[in-house]
Every structure is written in C-alpha cells, then in structure tokens.
C-alpha cells in the first residue's frame, strides 16, 4: 500500500508542476488536498477546503476553486467554507451539485460510472476467489495438508480424499480464520 501511495504522490506532484496553466489536475480531490502541504498553519481544515473544491494557490491563505476559479483569502470564523464559496460564486457548477469533473478521494456522488463498474467487477472476482470450489456457496476455509491449498468450506472438506487443485492425497486439514 505504501508503494502505491508514494507512486500516486509522485504522479500528482508531477502533474501539479506540469499543469500550472490549466488546473485540470485539481479535478482530483487528492491533488487539491496535496496542494495544501505548504498552507500556513491556521484553524482552517485543508481536508474541508479540498472537499469543497479549493486548492492552495501558494499565496498567503488564498485558495481557488478548481471548477469556477473563485479565489478567496479571507476565511472568517463561524462561516462555513461552502457558504463562503456559494456567496462568492453562486453559479459554481461544483457548489450547485451540477455535473462536474470532480474526482473525490472516497467515491460518492461524483464517482464515475466506469470506476464504480470496475470496483464492482473486482469485488465479484475477489468473492469468486474465496468461495468454496465445490459448493460455490460458502467461503473456502479449510487448508489441505501437505499441499496448503485452501479451496473448500468446512462442509465440503470431509468428502475430499485428494486436493481438487493438485490432486495430492490429503493427510490432514486445518481450519483457516480470515479477517
């Protein structure tokens, strides 16, 4: 996981450096959040600012909306970031909830259908991989010894004399507990 996170940081860092003129990289909430790494220490939340469409411009406390270009550097206490954004740019497509190019960190309403479909397919594939290869109903939870294959559930395992994967004789079994 660490490798993927570092690769993503490097990739987005390169995009930010190479994309100062057209702020398409800031369509990604992750990139907006990363832009706040050098933001002055204040009571403002970089997470909230990036969720509300802002990225850090690098000047004082100024942040700019990726969608409408609205820029603000005064963040009065007691007024929500969304309210400031809505007042400063009432027609912002992002604030209005209209279709926008926003790519949120954790999916949600703005998730792209192709991303959701890919995640759904991956989930089905993972479910298929852990299911019992005999009954296809329960999760595989028995490890065959000595080969180490885990392909059956507790109900189907007693009927096996040979491993269905490698065909070696089963000399023992171990119940596996997966998190």
UniProtKB/TrEMBL annotation:
The entry's keywords: Metal-binding, Zinc, Zinc-finger
InterPro entries xrefs: BIR_rpt, IAP, Znf_RING, Znf_RING/FYVE/PHD
Domain RING-type: 132-167
Domain of life: Eukaryota
Family annotation (Gene3D superfamilies): Inhibitor Of Apoptosis Protein (2mihbC-IAP-1), Chain A, Zinc/RING finger domain, C3HC4 (zinc finger)
Database matches in SMART domains: BIR, RING
Protein family: Belongs to the IAP family.
Entry protein name: BIR7B-like protein
Organism: Mya arenaria (Soft-shell clam)
Organism ancestry: Eukaryota, Metazoa, Spiralia, Lophotrochozoa, Mollusca
């Amino acid at each position: 996981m660490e490798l993927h996170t570092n690769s993503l940081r490097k990739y987005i860092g390169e995009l930010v450096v190479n994309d100062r003129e057209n702020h398409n990289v800031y369509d990604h909430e992750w990139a907006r959040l990363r832009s706040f790494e050098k933001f002055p220490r204040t009571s403002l939340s970089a997470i909230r600012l990036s969720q509300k469409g802002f990225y850090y411009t690098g000047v004082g406390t100024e942040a700019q909306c990726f969608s409408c270009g609205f820029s603000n550097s005064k963040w009065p206490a007691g007024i929500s970031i969304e309210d400031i954004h809505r007042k400063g740019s009432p027609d912002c497509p992002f604030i209005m909830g209209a279709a926008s190019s926003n790519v949120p960190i954790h999916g949600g309403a703005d998730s792209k259908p192709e991303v959701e479909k890919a995640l759904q397919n991956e989930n089905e594939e993972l479910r298929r991989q852990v299911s019992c290869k005999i009954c296809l109903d329960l999760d595989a939870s028995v490890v065959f010894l000595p080969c180490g294959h885990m392909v059956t559930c507790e109900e189907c395992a007693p009927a096996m004399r040979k491993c269905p994967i490698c065909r070696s004789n089963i000399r023992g079994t171990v119940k596996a507990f997966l998190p």
